[in-house]
Design a protein that fits this description.
It is a single chain. With 329 residues, this protein is α/β, with parallel strands linked by helices. The chain folds into two domains: 5-175, Peroxisomal Thiolase, Chain A, domain 1 (3-Layer(aba) Sandwich); 179-326, Thiolase/Chalcone synthase (Peroxisomal Thiolase, Chain A, domain 1). The protein is 33% helix and 24% strand. The strands form four sheets. Strands 1-7-6-4-5 form a five-stranded mixed beta sheet, sandwiched between helices. A four-stranded mixed beta sheet has the order 8-13-12-11, with helices on both faces. A hairpin with a 3-residue loop joins strand 12 (308-315) and strand 13. It is globular, with a radius of gyration of 19 Å. Bound molecules: coenzyme A. The site of coenzyme A has 20 residues, from helix 2, helix 6 and helix 8.
Length: 329
């Protein structure tokens, strides 16, 4: 039973300063700016410098989100960090963030749902708010994908970037998170994975020699899955919210590839002007991509009070997740 409405009270981002352009990548692997641009839409990405991690980007993003929400860290009941590149397997990056922010004794855990992680986190947070169990929750999507990227593999190294985006979720009078939809298909897990580093293949000289601690991807399979999953999940969440897709004011998809986004938008009959994209600047930042895009859309005044915003993520797992928000301003 929904007792309270949940919405976004403030947003923040944390990005590396270092920019790596397609031209820079031409010097590292056998690729061209033209290939990357036409196949993916990406022109440059932000890459972490030594010492920068998912935690350092989360701290920046989290502080800004708290400031924009007008609340102090001690007010947080829960911190969720969605990431596939935590600082360590344990303790959770969310716990390190709780300490760094001085967030009282907020509960904290990491959430691993690939690039859908932030939207999974929003859905989860909304439930705690709806029931009245918690009042203020920080949801962060943070990645340093550059640390698990094989910089000799042109199939993957041109796609990814680093950074974080954060949202404070709390009670709102009206609007807010109207509906969510999420799912998974573990049968497709092999299409996008980092095989080593967990319990199955711990770090050994052999695992290092075989480069098993890097992203392995079947790009064509992921592409096909993404297009189907995005359209299906968007339709399902629109049905749940009882909002026709044509009444969506802004579509903010996971920023993986311009062709995936355009194909999905076309299937959903969402016109180009209602589709937000910033992947040309950041590449695919996994769990960070949607909150960074949401933050920028708001900064660029592409979202105003009362607007219906559709967020759709997909990624490793395989997973997908959607949220429809009514912007509370
Ligand atoms: N530069 C130049 N050539 C490249 C290249 C690069 N960076 N990467 C791959 N190629 C080559 C391939 O080796 C292949 O060559 P071949 O035909 O001689 O074997 C050729 O380009 C075409 O490869 P293909 O896989 O058909 O390209 P594509 O048009 O499907 O695009 C992706 C490849 C990876 C961009 C695309 O499949 C994709 O975006 N998939 C989804 C990935 C994704 O979003 N992952 C994250 C999900 S959260």
């Amino acid at each position: 039973m929904e007792k309270f409405k949940a919405g976004i009270l403030g947003l923040g981002i944390g990005l590396p300063e270092k920019i790596v352009s397609n031209k820079d990548l031409e010097k590292i692997v056998d690729t061209t700016d033209e290939w990357i641009t036409t196949r993916t839409g990406i022109k440059e990405r932000r890459i972490a410098s030594p010492g920068e991690t998912a935690l350092s980007f989360s701290i920046k993003a989290g502080r800004e989100a708290l400031e924009n929400a007008g609340i102090s860290p001690e007010d947080l009941d829960l911190i969720i960090v969605a990431t596939v590149t935590p600082d360590m397997i344990f303790p959770a990056t969310a716990c390190l963030l709780q300490d760094a922010l001085n967030a009282g004794s907020a509960a904290a855990f990491d959430l691993e749902a690939g690039c859908s992680g932030f939207v999974y986190g929003m859905a989860l947070a909304s439930q705690f708010i709806n029931t009245g169990s918690y009042k203020k929750i920080l949801v962060v999507g943070a990645e340093v994908l550059s640390r698990i990227t094989d910089w000799e593999d042109r199939n993957t190294c041109v796609l990814f970037g680093d950074g974080a985006g954060a949202a404070v979720i709390g009670q709102v009078e009206q609007g807010g998170i109207l509906a969510f939809e999420m799912g998974s298909d573990g049968g497709g897990g092999d299409f996008l994975k980092m095989p080593a580093g967990g319990g199955a293949i711990p770090a050994t000289e052999e695992s290092l020699a075989q480069k098993l601690h890097y992203i392995k991807m079947d790009g064509n399979q992921v592409f096909k899955f993404a297009v189907k999953a995005m359209a299906r999940s968007a339709r399902l969440v629109a049905e749940k919210a009882n909002i026709p897709i044509e009444d969506i004011d802004l579509f903010i998809p996971h920023q993986a590839n311009i062709r995936i986004i355009e194909t999905s938008a076309k299937r959903l009959k969402i016109p180009e002007k209602k589709v937000f994209m910033n992947l040309e600047k950041y590449g695919n930042t996994s769990a960070a991509s949607i909150p960074i895009a949401l933050y920028e859309a708001l900064k660029q005044k592409q979202i105003k009070k009362g607007d219906r915003v559709l967020l759709v993520g997909f990624g490793a797992g395989l997973t997908w997740a959607s949220v429809i928000l009514e912007w509370t301003g």
